[in-house]
Amino acid sequence: MSVQHEAPRTGVRTSPGVGSPPPRRLSRRHKELAWAVIFLAPAIIAILTLRIAPSIGAVISSLHRGFPGGVLEPVFSGFRNYADLLANEAFRDTVVRTVVFNVIINPLQVAIALMVAVLVTRKIGAPGLWRTLIFIPATVPIVGSSIVWGVALRPEGPINAIIEALGGTPQPFFTSGDQALASIMLVLSWIGIGYWMLFLISGIQSIPEEYYEAARLDRAGPIRTFFSITIPLLKRPLLFVLVADTVANFVVFVPIQMLTNGGPQNSTTMQMFNAYRTTYTYGSKNLGAAEVVILTLIMLVFVAIQFRMLREDRPTRSRR
Amino acid sequence: MRRTTRAAGTVGVIALMLTAACSSGSDGGGDGGGDGSWSLPAEDPTATIQVLGHQDAADMQLVLDAFAEAHPTITVEYEAVPFDQLNSILDARIGNQDGNPDVFWADQPRIPALASRGYTEDLSEQFADDLDAFDPAPVESSSFDGSLWALPIANSTQLLYYNKTLLDAAGAEYPSAAVEDRMTWEEVTERAQAAVDAGAQNGLLFGQVNRYYQLQPLPMSLGGSAGGTGDGNLTPDVTTDPWVEAMTWYGSLFADGLSPQGVTPEQSDAEFLTGNTAYMVQGPWLLPQLSDATFEWGVAAQPAFADGEAVTPTGSWSLAMSPFSDDKEAAGVFMRWMSVEGGGGYALNYGSPELPATPEGKTAYFERDVFDSDSGQDAVAIIDYESSNTAVPRLQTVGYVEFEEILGRAFSDVANGTDPQTALESATSELETAWAQYQ
Amino acid sequence: MTATTTRLRRGRSERRSVALTILAVLVAAVFALPALWLLLGSVRPSSEIFGSLSPLSWRILVPSSVSLDNYVTLLTGSFGRALGVSFLVCALTVAVGVIVCALAAYALAVLQFRGRGAVFAFVVISFMVPFEAIAIPLSQLFTSWGLTNTIMGLVLPGIGNGLAIFNLRQHFLAVPTSYREAATIDGASEPRVLWSVYWPLGGSALANSALLIFLGQWTAYLWPLLVVSESRLQVAPVALSRTFGEHTFDYGQNFAGAVVLSVVPAVMMFILQRSFGGLSLATGEK
């Protein structure tokens, strides 16, 4: 790789402050810490009270058992909820299914979003219009999207009519255990790709034109330019999109609820859908909390791997 | 907020923060049942009560206006929440234990669960004298463990609707509207096939496709149980011959192309109204929409199997009282007016017709405009007969929600081609797991 | 570089742009077509929404007649008012949220302090917790704080958005540190550096974060139901839910509401792209 994503060195007004004397440096450290505390305080307080505290509540709740729902006090039961869940074959299947689903859908969505983002940042007519149209599915209320796709993918629906008109065999889509999950992925990708595209567009636009000029002078083709310039310089937005998309796909459940309700034969029962059903439909809050805790732990593993894979090579000058 | 129990509520919330537990912990009122310390007052108290329901606030206004006229000292603050979120919101609000809401809409098959969870006040004592005013099925659906937990305000039944244009094209005669001449499912299957052969897109549509409410009568018509037996109806009983036979028939509708896959319950009315469906089983709520239909239509009684009994679905909504209500007397006056007075203030005054749970209310209900046509008059006779004679309540168990959900998925699998025996067996094992916590 | 090669190159890139434009149009069509069906469903006679589905014909995308009744009924009813509430809630959340998140992102990307990694991990974990899992206990806390039926109760959960912080942090990391060093030597304080160096360079990332916070609030459904019981504070997605009842589903009105709800963020995104799209690091450099 000829181009590292260190800071471009054009038009820097002054030389970097490397020669500061030690005492100043120390006070500067303290100052930075003070500013960090001030800058972080509002966000951290909000996150702590509105997210983390109730999450700890959920963890504690997962260690209790009570009559499903109800105002009767649950009793402490240690890890019994977890033991019950892990002993349940249907639950283990759900965990495996969720993992497989995420291993497939996240790279796929990000790859397509990236290709679309590259396309709409090339020299084309009216890019803003096409970007907006591709983004629109992300803004349609989920209930609406689910109706559209449920109708479109009916066994006697328009998509099968098109397939038939082109000489193909009609497909069962949501009504077959083999295709339902893929069909759900299709719907989620339709919703998600335009959204993640936006963040990648802004990343692509942040890549200084000089790099592309240099590649052109090197007579690099579009594919080589893509892999040796675009991708390495897009690592940070890519990491964001991959992590955010993964989280979104782990916690999604409304389209599943509306389109397949977890079927056929549980083939689309994902862990969040399951946890939502346990908590809200069945009213088993303690058990539901345990399911969410397991879900979050799995998500953590995924995200940790992603951070590792797209690790930032620290820009040479910026640290220490 | 006007709250006398506010201090107690705050204590509860602090306890909640300390234990940080999901389910609210409180030492007060946890028993949930009524303590009989109140009675229906002879004279109306002056009070404001809060009522939570899924009916649209604008539609409810007529009802609330009528109540205000009858009981001017009681002010009702009605809050409408979406049908699909009613239970989540109830969980949150009752968990607050602050008396909001005082009265709420309770789905009848959920009443055993609501009662066991301590969400409802025991009303047996206060309303003992009013029970004779109702049809028996809705009262049964509002009771559990020998007590009355809610007052029924509506009822429901199902009819067989048919599209005369499509039946003509298939050369099929119209079904008789007389309940004693109801068709058999075998006949319907045959004629639906003829209609499809003659060009109809759908032969037979279950309006509530894959829902237990509408499919329960199939196995029961063949002599099966409601789906659960034993102590508290907590032993699954869905793999018996009647169940398997009924589900085999149901699955064949989809396999043979008589019923469409992918039409959801919310879409079935619209599907029938496009004029492409020969027969549809649906509730009376379809009648008003049919006035705009572009085709001729008729109604008949819900069919039964040839060597089986006539069984029809029933049940709707009741009003329940929160045990944390701080105006139980006023709430009781409101509930009584809604369900019993004059045949039921709710059913009588609500904009779109809801089948009342009282015979007196039904008389007034049948006077409504939607029943003016000949087919409407046929519907009157059928609804009247079914709701008093063939109606069977849904399975009564604390584990109903899980039961409905798991069976719904099994039905959907059958419709998608899974072997009925396999689907029902796997539902049984899922049910056993889900119900273990209630044993 | 000679004049001829330049011309050649330009010629080639223009030819390519036509092909790529066609490709972009096709991709856009695939994404927009299902949404178009919603739009058509909101203006066509209701019997036609499902009636035109099969057999496959041009009817599916060509209504026999067009009427705006669904929009009129919707916007003059409680939905119109709820839209106003939604706007207010979103505007407040975005205004406060972007600032809160930018401050945090700046600290996490630029400032050096012990435990920075831990704080960042904490932020990442915060957006991994499914909101549905904590909504009911959180709403009961809000009740005890007296925040039910207040705008504040609706706005607060959208403020500390971990995703927006993450997004801005990634962007701020790409800003050359020399900029800040130059500014500090000129005597600028940290807020000054953030405001006059990082904020203007934030451009499209700030716009995206604003959109992210906006969409989160704009589509909120469960939370408003839990903390608001008075109709005057009802938000648009909740108001739209009256189109689906227990037995009936008013598709025409639901689709009209869906169109209104999706047009607002789409237009917002179009405008944001216009105003901030060009203001990226690349141009900031020059």
Automatic annotation (TrEMBL), chain A:
UniProt organism field: Occultella gossypii
Alphabetical list of InterPro entries matching this protein: ABC_transporter_permease (IPR051393), MetI-like (IPR000515), MetI-like_sf (IPR035906)
Membrane topology category: Multi-pass membrane protein
One Pfam family it belongs to: BPD_transp_1
Protein family per UniProt: Belongs to the binding-protein-dependent transport system permease family.
Protein name according to UniProt: Sugar ABC transporter permease
UniProt cross-references to PROSITE patterns, sorted A to Z: ABC_TM1
Range of residues in the leader sequence: none
TM spans (from-to): 33-53, 99-120, 132-152, 180-201, 238-260, 287-310
Residues covered by the ABC transmembrane type-1 domain: 95-306
Lineage: superkingdom: Bacteria
Keywords assigned by UniProt, alphabetized: Cell membrane, Membrane, Transmembrane, Transmembrane helix, Transport
Compartments where found: Cell membrane
Chain spans, region Disordered: 1-25
TrEMBL record, chain B:
Transport as UniProt keyword: yes
CDD domains per UniProt: PBP2_TMBP_like
Gene3D superfamilies associated with the record: Periplasmic binding protein-like II
Keywords, comma-separated and alphabetical: Signal, Transport
InterPro entries linked: SBP (IPR006059)
Signal peptide: 1-25
Any coiled-coil regions, as ranges: none
Family: Belongs to the bacterial solute-binding protein 1 family.
Name listed for the protein in its UniProt record: Sugar ABC transporter substrate-binding protein
Species the sequence originates in: Occultella gossypii
UniProtKB/TrEMBL annotation, chain C:
Transmembrane segments: 17-40, 85-111, 118-138, 150-168, 197-223, 251-272
SUPFAM superfamilies assigned: MetI-like
Cellular localization per UniProt: Cell membrane
Keywords assigned: Cell membrane, Membrane, Transmembrane, Transmembrane helix, Transport
Keyword Cell membrane: yes
InterPro entries for the chain: MetI-like, MetI-like_sf
Pfam families linked to this entry: BPD_transp_1
Gene3D superfamilies linked: MetI-like
Residue ranges constituting the ABC transmembrane type-1 domain according to the UniProt record: 83-272
Bilayer disposition of the protein: Multi-pass membrane protein
Homology family: Belongs to the binding-protein-dependent transport system permease family.
Protein name: Carbohydrate ABC transporter permease
Organism: Occultella gossypii
